[in-house]
Amino acid sequence: MRRGAQPDHAARRGLFAAAVTWAIYRDRKTPTRKLSIDMVGLASLVTWVASLQIMLDKGKNLDWFSSPVFTVLMAPVVGKILPKSELRVLATLSFLGFAAVYFMRSHYTTGVDTYTRRTSRSHDRTPD
């Protein structure tokens, strides 16, 4: 930020909201209880998140389906699941998933702007 520059309005509103919230809740006392931690659940969660992160990183680096490593790792999983499932159901669900994604993508254009919202200003309004 330049020397002497004012913070933007969003920062001011955020600081104002934090100050009002602190003023409202500073005297409120919440009773606290000391509960034990589920160590098995916490260890499972940490293992799952770490595995997911490693899988996503490896998949991106190895270019997912064109990688022989990914194909070799997924072949036993697919081979174990497919014989036990009804292939017509799998094909139907795959088609419905494709149709849903295709429908959603058909509404996106290069002019889509999902981050800003048009607000009405006083000069945009028509006089009553």
UniProtKB/TrEMBL annotation:
Residue spans crossing the bilayer: 35-56, 89-108
Record keywords, A-Z: Membrane, Transmembrane, Transmembrane helix
Domain of life (superkingdom): Bacteria
Entry protein name: Drug resistance transporter, EmrB/QacA subfamily
Organism: Cupriavidus necator (strain ATCC 17699 / DSM 428 / KCTC 22496 / NCIMB 10442 / H16 / Stanier 337) (Ralstonia eutropha)
